[in-house]
Amino acid sequence: xxxxxxxxxxRPYVLRAMYDWMVDNLLTPQIAVNVNFPEVDLPLQYxxxxxxxxxxxxxxxxxxxxxxxxxxxxxxxxxxxHSVYVPMIAVTSIYPREDPKLGMYLLPEAGxxxxxxxxxxxxxxxxxxxxEEVENTGSKENVPSSAPESGEKKxxxxxxxxxxxx
Length: 166
Hints:
This is Stringent starvation protein B. Residues 132-166 are annotated as: Disordered. InterPro entries: SspB, SspB-like_sf. It is a single chain. The protein is α+β, with helices and mostly antiparallel strands. The chain has a domain at 2-117: SspB-like (SH3 type barrels, Roll). The chain contains 2 helices and 7 strands. Strand 3 and strand 4 form a beta hairpin. The longest helix has 14 residues, at 11-24.
């Protein structure tokens, strides 16, 4: 953010505006959710490849609440009632079922780190961390030890990488 101005992320505002526009135009709002974020509370057996599509139309859900922290509602999955909570950072897109081209992909926002870090909700910051780049030779002998050698003072940082573990 420029000039040190700290504002909350715009994602919840964009999402509420898109939702209202879809409902006003008799479209069926759906959201894509990354289920790998902490605090996602929904029936995970319906997720595929770490993603679930949720119909959040007024006919499909009860008690829908979209606030700056997340989306909550009650819905049925396979005929079984569930309470659902999706933190705002886990929503990746919103689009109408009738024409997904009218939707919007929600880009990651740097503001979420500061917003959640300074909140009183106790939301964790992400669950990803930097790891050292290691050449995969198939042998565990080349894996570096995390313990520093004696006399070692300088810690060399390498480019962070992401490893997906399923």
